[in-house]
Design a protein that fits this description.
This protein has 85 residues and is mainly alpha-helical. 74% of the residues lie in helices and 0% in strands. Helix 1 packs antiparallel against helix 2. The model has no long low-confidence stretch (mean pLDDT 85).
Length: 85
């Protein structure tokens, strides 16, 4: 399987996660809100993986730490990584 094909499959998986996330968006419970945020992050991480497979540079594939929120574990880890810590 070529990198292009793999990236296509990864993007399809991200869209499947995104669809489940959208189904939860209309929920009004705290659990649904937590699941919505988790699925949102999962979909974006799969898209990032697709971009890495396609050969994007790390920083361009992940983007800015603030895109995830500096207070989140992922945003904080990206910030530290970009600073070389």
């Amino acid at each position: 399987m070529s990198a292009t094909e793999l990236a296509k499959v990864l993007r399809a998986e991200a869209e499947a996660i995104w669809s489940v996330r959208n189904e939860l968006r209309d929920g009004d419970t705290e659990r649904d809100d937590r699941l919505y945020r988790s699925l949102n992050n999962a979909a974006e991480l799969v898209r990032i993986l697709a971009r890495l497979v396609e050969g994007e540079q790390f920083h361009k594939a992940f983007g800015a730490p603030g895109d995830f929120g500096y207070e989140t574990p992922l945003g904080a880890a990206l910030s530290r990584h970009y600073r070389g810590e």
